[in-house]
Amino acid sequence: MKDNFDFLPILGTDYIEFYVGNSKQAAYFYQTAFGFQPLAYAGLETGLMDRSSYVLQQGKIRLVFTSALQGENEISRHAMEHGDGVKVIALWVDDATKSWVETTKRGAESYMAPTATNDEFGEVITSGIRIYGETVHLFIERKNYNGAFLPGFKAWESDYITQPTGLKYVDHMVGNVGWGEMNKWVDFYANVMGFNQLVSFDDKDISTEYTALMSKVMTNGNDRIKFPINEPAAGKKKSQVEEYLDFYGTSGVQHIAMETDNIIKTVGELRNRGIEFLEVPDQYYDIVEERVGSIDEKIDNLKKFGILVDRDDEGYLLQIFTKPLVDRPTLFFEIIQRKGAKSFGKGNFKALFEAIELEQSKRGTL
Ligand code: FE2
User: Fold this and answer.
1) Structural domain of residue 226, as residue ranges?
2) Considering its fold, how many domains does the chain have in total?
3) Under a CB-based contact definition with an 8 Å cutoff, are residues 8 and 102 in contact?
4) Assessment of whether the complete model's pTM goes beyond 0.90
5) Residue 249 shares a structural domain with residue 129
6) Which of 34, 221, 231, 293 has the smallest set of CB atoms within 10 Å of its CB?
């Protein structure tokens, strides 16, 4: 049910921060392979002794890669326990203090009380709350700031510029949570953050002969933020969510879906740069036109790149999933192009999960 009063207005995703083993090399990978452009840097040269952070941007998507510089600290421990993974989903707000007050009074656990930071470019107010696993939301208020990224960062000037691959903005970010915990986090997003439930999939929707999961999609007042929450469901074999939990060690972000307005071009470019995607059986394309009707793209082009299609009442969408982008079978990206459809590719779940099972069986984790 839509509440007329949005107590947590969110302008968009501000950035996504990954804690990684080697931020310099991670940044180079996302720069070179995905075409993100250098934006800002913090580390020894900016007076930090314990960490380095590289910030990259493409379209409206900002990614931050942070690693520890010495010994044991929060970042090195996180990287050791979980492997490279998402620590912060930062949300761009008009009022970070109010965002923190409204969410903590509704039961959110504080991660950071509202804090002002300054440099010659102005002031940013940041606050934060904890969500599933060790993941957090930061609220970023930057209306009085015009620096490259945040106070403490310097603009990252690089002579090495890669071509963008057409990624525009974050469409949705999926969290994997433990057995029986989906509804707890759905309630959290509803009650603590004022989100609405967009759609729900049970294990009958998302299952193959062997594995199953359940999912509910939560969205904020202006629909700019969409967070599907997955939990494993019982099946004959181990589901992808269970595999994720085994390797990540706790709940966390499973995938980030990024919008492009030309998926064939984007995926062709990413494949040229060595990005690997889940393989779709050729038979998928034999019945695709029957299933989704006529579309603008040539089926042969979709088949060539392994792009999936699905239709709902409002239009259709094209989507594809990378193989894991880190050592562990945890984090991956989705590339999505929406042509009217606002759904999440329910018609592709079976084909997709069979493709994931094939990868799991190669890893011996099915
Ligand atoms: Fe997705």
Assistant:
1) 167-363
2) 2
3) yes
4) yes
5) no
6) 293
Please tell me the distance from the alpha carbon of residue 36 to that of residue 131, in angstroms, as a whole number. Answer: 27
Residues 113 and 248 in one domain: no
For residues 169 and 60, is the Cβ–Cβ distance under 8 A? yes
Q: Which residues have a Cβ under 8 Å from the Cβ of 211 and sit 6 or more positions away?
A: 235, 236, 237, 238, 239, 240, 353, 357, 366
The rounded Å distance from CA 44 to ligand 1 centre is: 37
| Same domain? 199 vs 149 | no
How far apart are the CA of 171 and the centre of ligand 1, in A? 8
**7 assigned to some structural domain:** no
CA of residue 159 to ligand 1 center, whole Å? 34
Task: Output the CA 116–ligand 1 centroid distance in Å.
Answer: 34
Separation of CA 228 and ligand 1 centre (Å): 8
Whether 63 maps to a domain, the answer reads yes
Question: Does 304 lie in the same domain as 230?
Answer: yes
CA of 174 to the centre of ligand 1 (A): 7
Query: How far is the centre of ligand 1, averaged over its atoms, from the C-alpha of 134 (Å)?
Result: 21
Shared-domain flag, residues 212 and 336? yes
Per-residue pLDDT of the chain (366 residues; tens, 9 = 90+): 444 588 999 999 999 999 999 999 999 999 999 999 999 999 999 999 999 999 999 999 999 999 999 989 999 999 999 999 999 999 999 999 999 999 999 999 999 999 999 999 999 999 999 999 999 999 999 999 999 999 999 999 989 989 999 999 999 999 999 999 999 999 999 999 999 998 887 777 777 878 788 899 999 989 899 999 999 988 888 888 999 999 999 999 999 999 999 999 999 999 999 999 998 888 889 888 888 999 999 999 999 999 999 999 999 999 999 999 999 999 999 999 999 998 888 888 877 778 788 889 899 998
Token pair listed for 324: 């894991």
Cβ neighbours of residue 311 closer than 8 Å, sequence gap 6 or more: 291, 292, 293, 317, 341, 347
Q: How far is the CA of 257 from the centre of ligand 1 (A)?
A: 6
Domain of 226, CATH number, reads 3.10.180.10
Distance 223 CA to ligand 1 centre (A): 15
Ligand 1 mean position, distance from CA 68 (Å): 30
Distance 155 CA to ligand 1 centre (A): 32
Distance 320 CA to ligand 1 centre (A): 9
Instruction: Give residue 172 CA to ligand 1 midpoint distance, Å.
Output: 7
Give 259 Cα–ligand 1 centroid separation in angstroms.
11
Are 212 and 337 found together in one domain?
yes
Cβ atoms within 10 A of the Cβ of 238, count? 16
> Element (H or E) spanning 110, and its range?
strand 110-119
